[in-house]
From TrEMBL:
The chain crosses the membrane at residues 6-27, 39-57, 77-95, 107-126, 150-180. InterPro entries: TMEM175-like. It is a multi-pass membrane protein. One of its GO terms (molecular function) is potassium channel activity. It is found in: Membrane. This is Uncharacterized membrane protein.
Length: 190
């Protein structure tokens, strides 16, 4: 299989994920601006999740750009990654529907953490398939940003039991860390 098919399939899955998330936000029954108020938590959770999916889409593009050959391990690692991302709409809907309550914030953090871990596994699988001199391996080097993200996700999950706003802040900080594409990869594959 060529990497174009893998990229197209992944892009399609990510587009569906975003579509499912927006379909969870229903128009209010009323016709006044005040009728929009109950949608605020749903909208905020959608915006954060949209940013996350966009970040993954952008970085996934660069990640696959450095791939010269697709093998079974890369395919399964990519599917594993897409599986965890496909749970983002459920956790987003639950979080928005229940005003960022503790259980919803915990689940959201777990989905984000497992998505990040699966992305790291995909990176590692690609680096291994490309060999010890892969450009991706050189670009990622120690990956401090990735390690900081994992720590913040764990902090967000743990603090969700005590204070869901601190938890949400941890998830928001990770998104802000990654909002600008990873320059290490961009420099090599641009």
């Amino acid at each position: 299989m060529n990497k174009g098919r893998l990229e197209a399939f992944s892009d399609g899955v990510l587009a569906i994920i975003i579509t499912i998330m927006i379909l969870e936000i229903k128009a209010p029954a009323g016709h006044e601006f005040v009728d929009l108020k109950p949608l605020i938590p749903k909208f905020l959770s959608y915006v954060l999740s949209f940013i996350y999916v966009g970040i993954y889409w952008n970085n996934h593009h660069y990640l696959l750009h450095g791939l010269s050959k697709v093998n079974g391990k890369v395919l399964w690692s990519n599917l594993h990654f897409l599986f965890w991302l496909s749970l983002i709409p459920v956790s987003t809907a639950w979080m928005g529907e229940h005003n960022f309550e503790k259980a919803a914030m915990t689940m959201y953090g777990v989905v984000l953490l497992l998505s990040a871990i699966s992305y790291i596994i995909l990176q590692y699988t690609i680096m291994c398939s490309e060999g010890s001199n892969s450009a991706l391996r050189k670009a990622l080097n120690k990956d401090y940003k990735g390690k900081i993200s994992l720590v913040l996700y764990v902090i967000g999950i743990v603090t969700a039991f005590f204070n869901q706003w601190v938890s949400g802040a941890a998830y928001f900080i990770v998104a802000m860390l990654w909002l600008i594409p990873d320059k290490r990869i961009g420099r090599i594959f641009s």
